[in-house]
Amino acid sequence: MDPLSDVIALLRPHAVFSKPITGRGTWGVRYPAYQAPGFSIVLAGRCWLAIDGAKPVLLDHGDFVLLASSPAFALLSQPDAKCVPGRPSQEAVRHGDPNGEPDFQMLGGSFQIDKVNAPLLLALLPTMIHIRAAEVDTGRLARIIDLIKEECAADGPGREMILERLLEIMLVEGLRWPGISQDLLPAGLLSGMRDPALAPVLRAMHANVRAGWTVAELASFAGMSRSAFAARFSETLGCAPMEYLSRWRMTLARDALSRGGRSLDRLAEEIGYDSASAFSTAFRRRVGCSPGAFARSHRNGDAKQALQ
């Protein structure tokens, strides 16, 4: 798989819900932060989205929004509308005038991602991805969300697996949208994959994580000198090449330990360490606890402490 697919696979999105949101007339509602990824697409009309600390953004018919971790925000029929408190729920919501046909319709939803790997999504995304229908055809995303809506409403065999795959597709579609401003992207994998010189390097590293890579070898994939490559990689990815490789190896290790089923010897070999002892030393230095303690903490529902 390519690096972006690797990350999405580790996120394991699940437990999705979606609901219709409608409004009529003048209205506004403010929601508290709920620390879960959220998405929405405007089906009819328009509204304003105001994330705390940022200027309101107009969401027009067909616009798609993806939030890595939903902060406190407000939805408004117009920027100066007064807001009433709202709370996240899985039920359909009607704002403003309760009578008559709505002049605004949106499908909104949220989902969970694997807690051990949740920082991966936050590291990939800006606060908000806003794909404007006026600039690009969002019909593909709309069809994906329609399928999510249908699966959420049904209770057929394989429902959870289908929803997980649809969420993965939705995330990839949002993350690879070319209209995301490079200025808004944090330093990291997504920025690196958009760099034509660094993308082959990242693909090589992810394709063979156990290899004993050197900076000179990686620079050859980029067609650059060692020093120029190291500087460009650090600026774009936010860390040196060998540091990135170490972080990715530890990400794979944490994921494997959280699920169990592998010996330390096998895991060490799979991610590029000469021995279980060398891996354990590197893991303790990076994560702050031994691999065994991390695995036990995760099984006990206390992986958060082990990650600190």
UniProtKB/TrEMBL annotation:
<dbReference type="GO" id="GO:0003700">
    <property type="term" value="F:DNA-binding transcription factor activity"/>
</dbReference>
<dbReference type="InterPro" id="IPR050204">
    <property type="entry name" value="AraC_XylS_family_regulators"/>
</dbReference>
<dbReference type="Pfam" id="PF12833">
    <property type="entry name" value="HTH_18"/>
</dbReference>
<dbReference type="InterPro" id="IPR009057">
    <property type="entry name" value="Homeodomain-like_sf"/>
</dbReference>
<dbReference type="InterPro" id="IPR032783">
    <property type="entry name" value="AraC_lig"/>
</dbReference>
<keyword id="KW-0805">Transcription regulation</keyword>
<feature type="domain" description="HTH araC/xylS-type">
    <location>
        <begin position="199"/>
        <end position="297"/>
    </location>
</feature>
<keyword id="KW-0238">DNA-binding</keyword>
<dbReference type="InterPro" id="IPR018062">
    <property type="entry name" value="HTH_AraC-typ_CS"/>
</dbReference>
<protein>
    <submittedName>
        <fullName>AraC family transcriptional regulator</fullName>
    </submittedName>
</protein>
<dbReference type="InterPro" id="IPR018060">
    <property type="entry name" value="HTH_AraC"/>
</dbReference>
<dbReference type="GO" id="GO:0043565">
    <property type="term" value="F:sequence-specific DNA binding"/>
</dbReference>
<dbReference type="Pfam" id="PF12852">
    <property type="entry name" value="Cupin_6"/>
</dbReference>
<keyword id="KW-0804">Transcription</keyword>
